[in-house]
């Protein structure tokens, strides 16, 4: 009986060894080795994801010296803070827009030959001067910009303004109000040249910008004898009073 048991144990050992050998031959060991080799590959995504914040942080913060994932995360937070402050900055800019529009000028309505009456008359003092008067005959305010553009008959040149007479603001006329411009017709000492007698005067109006068209011109009546002028002919900017208009 003892011998039989030993024989059985020996047979069992041979069977186990045979099974182990068979496992090695049919690729089980190869699969085990494959599982071991796949371990680092499985951990690669984890490593890659831990590097992503660093790359993102260095990209957004412009700093390539980020040392680790936690620092990279801090960089992202700082980037978010900067972005937030940038958004606040844009909001402040938009907030200032209404203030700018409040400061914008009101709707521009030029005075011209269609909504005013215009007269031109020589004055005794100062000598060789003429006064142009514009009265608002319309139903709403109108604006007189810059200075009148004068033309006697077929004159081919434009009289220049007296720059010293430029007012601080545009002259605005309410209905029924008047404004003025003074005209130096000729030099009192006779130093002017090209003297002529004008029979017809055209008064042009300027728009919002210099030398732009402000609308229909006016043709005020002149004395029957006409008005003498020479190369000294100049005109003031529009003024709110006759005294200011005739000062120059």
What does the secondary structure layout of this molecule look like, with pairings?
Blueprint: H1 2-25, H2 28-61, H3 69-102, E1 116-123, E2 129-136, E3 142-152, E4 160-161, E5 171-173, E6 178-184, E7 196-198, E8 201-206, E9 227-229, E10 234-235, H4 242-245
Helix pairs in contact: 2-3
Protein name: DUF4232 domain-containing protein
Region (Disordered): 26-121
Biased composition (Low complexity): 35-58, 88-104
Provide key terms for this protein.
248 residues; alpha+beta; three-stranded antiparallel beta sheet; 4 helices; DUF4232; signal; TAT_signal; DUF4232 domain-containing protein
Short description:
With 248 residues, the protein is α+β, with helices and mostly antiparallel strands. It has helices at 2-25, 28-61, 69-102, 242-245; strands spanning 116-123, 129-136, 142-152, 160-161, 171-173, 178-184, 196-198, 201-206, 227-229, 234-235.
Strand line-up of the largest beta sheet = 1-2-6-10-4
Radius of gyration: 48 Å
Uncertain ranges: 14-105
Which word captures the global form? globular
Helical proportion, percent range? 25-40%
Q: Give the rounded overall mean pLDDT.
A: 73
Report on the biggest sheet.
5 strands, mixed
User: Structural class of the helix and strand makeup?
Assistant: alpha+beta
Keywords: Signal
Protein name: DUF4232 domain-containing protein
Organism: Streptomyces griseoincarnatus
InterPro entries: DUF4232, TAT_signal
């Amino acid at each position: 009986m003892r011998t039989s048991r030993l024989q059985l144990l020996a047979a069992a050992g041979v069977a186990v060894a045979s099974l182990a050998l068979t496992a090695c031959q049919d690729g089980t060991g190869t699969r085990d080795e494959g599982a071991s080799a796949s371990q680092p590959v499985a951990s690669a995504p984890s490593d890659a994801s831990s590097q992503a914040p660093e790359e993102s942080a260095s990209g957004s913060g412009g700093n390539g010296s980020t040392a680790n994932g936690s620092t990279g995360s801090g960089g992202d937070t700082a980037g978010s803070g900067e972005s937030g402050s940038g958004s606040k900055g844009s909001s402040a800019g938009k907030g200032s827009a209404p203030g700018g529009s409040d400061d914008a000028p009101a709707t521009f309505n030029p005075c011209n030959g269609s909504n005013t009456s215009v007269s031109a008359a020589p004055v005794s003092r100062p000598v060789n001067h003429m006064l142009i008067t514009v009265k608002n005959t319309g139903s709403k305010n109108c604006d007189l910009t810059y200075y009148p553009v004068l033309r006697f008959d077929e004159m081919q040149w434009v009289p220049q303004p007296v720059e010293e007479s430029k007012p601080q603001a545009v002259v605005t006329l309410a209905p029924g109000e008047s404004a003025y411009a003074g005209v130096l017709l000729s030099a009192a000492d006779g130093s002017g040249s090209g003297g002529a007698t004008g029979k017809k005067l055209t008064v042009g109006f300027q728009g919002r910008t210099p030398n732009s068209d402000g609308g229909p011109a006016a043709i005020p009546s002149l004395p029957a004898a006409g008005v003498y002028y020479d190369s000294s002919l100049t005109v003031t900017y529009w003024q709110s009073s006759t005294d200011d208009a005739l000062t120059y």
